[in-house]
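Hi P.,

Sorry for the delay on this. The queue was packed all week, but I finally got your sequence through. Input first:
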Amino acid sequence: SAFVPVVLGCSHACTYCIIPYRRGVERSRPVEDVLQEVRSLVSQGVKEVTLLGQIVDRYGLDLPEPSTLSALLRLIHEVKGLERIRFLTSHPNWFSRELMDVVAELPRVMPHIEVPHQAGHDQVLKGMKREYTIQQYRELIGQIRDRIPGVSIATDVIVGFPGETKQYFQSSYDLLQELRLDVVHLARYSIRPGTVAARKMEDDVLDDEKWRRFRLIEELQEG
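Then the structure:
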């Protein structure tokens, strides 16, 4: 298996994230460059590729001749000798019905979706600059499950983000209990120097409380 970056950098700039400052603005690789790399990997014996992007669903929007991740997946699916195709990481605002259709229709595109929600309360999401609501995320998960038979869904969750009260955390816990996602990548908030959160938000959740919240979600997922 091999990883193939298709979108470099990021222009979204969530308030906790250092990626835009370290890797620059979002840049999609030309379609033919990606296809050539995939063909080369397959010729070396690679059977599975994972397409990478900070927001992989935005692939191709910045190209001189705009493309989409859906179109790229269809082209890669035609590469002979390739057995499995994956992609990550998706963003709730950019995971389209067209992309759902591609995953549902193409047998070598694996039915596994990485679509982080990061927090389970709208006020925390606003502070993170995620630009969707919990209800919108809930509806997206329902649409994905309806369209893609046997799909597995992974998410990322940050506990202890600035301003996350115990009530707000409980909303995160309740959402995970409701949705029963297959994988939760869990992190305790920590300051990344240079980010908006580091410059403008107080890290006001004690470390012991972050650990308590972390363990509660761990136990939920293990149950």
